[in-house]
Amino acid sequence: xxxxxxxxxxxxxxxxxxxxxxxxxxxxxxxxxxxxxxxxxxxxxxxxxxxxxxxxxxxxxxxxxxxxxxxxxxxxxxxxxxxxxxxxxxxxxxxxxxxxxxxxxxxxxxxxxxxxxxxxxxxxxxxxxxxxxxxxxxxxxxxxxxxxxxxxxxxxxxxxxxxxxxxxxxxxxxxxxxxxxxxxxxxxxxxxxxxxxxxxxxxxxxxxxxxxxxxxxxxxxxxxxxxxxxxxxxxxxxxxxxxxxxxxxxxxxxxxxxxxxxxxxxxxxxxxxxxxxxxxxxxxxxxxxxxxxxxxxxxxxxxxxxxxxxxxxxxxxxxxxxxxxxxxxxxxxxxxxxxxxxxxxxxxxxxxxxxxxxxxxxxxxxxxxxxxxxxxxxxxxx
Length: 382
Description:
382 residues; alpha/beta; five-stranded parallel sheet; 19 strands; 26% helix; elongated
């Protein structure tokens, strides 16, 4: 009879070290022979252990380390399940093989020091990520805690910031950032009083750099309502232009992802610039022509075709690539593209909408209506 799989213990430890651990956590750690973790955590635990320091890069090495030390105790910073190694280990070996003993997270400690309600705070991790990711969270009156950020970069975006260093330890320090170097173990607090852009689709056209190839504000809002972004889902934006559809999709939730396909290198570079400026630098830009450029991309949950509708194979490829329950939205302006849309509507059904937008503009000393070209939108669920 085979023995049961070994249990992997994951213990959170703070800057207060061994003395800050609960009796339960101390007993659990002491029962192990092998400790694994970052050097900082390993140095906080006294006693005679085999200490295995995390290599760099860590993720590729984890499977072999876990195979070699299947019953090790892993030390993690704070709460291992909050932006920590705990969730990674659960994905690798399964929840039944991992036992987690958490310590108060840096975010919990920061809120305790600041007098902020944890449930009202937005947390942004900049560990290994660009500071531009913070832009989407900067909303008037919001309180934000930043993990792994550079104070100079954060202050350049957010204004006044508070830095909390070595929380819970004997060297703890909390105060406004003055420009001086800070301890690597820090949390940055923002009580934002500036302006911001809403996450609701339909941002002003002026916030996008473009050369005229832009899905206009009203059409964009209608298109995104049909695309129906949900947390964790992936969008293909075919014919990116200025990237407005992909960018607004990604802004609806931090876990929404988008890939935009644009054949012109100059426009592709502009999409990258727009995405960073609007707080979603993770939008992926593929330079190429559909449908060839779609080959090998991750299966999308929704597809928007804003350009190239009349190119043979584009609609077919997008429809075939969609996951079950996925949404396809196509915008057509010309008679030729409308003919393609009409044929697919006859084949697959869905909904057809024609949108005409008029905007007030000066006519001499008066105001009149200037009507944009009407847009036909076809949306269908697979």
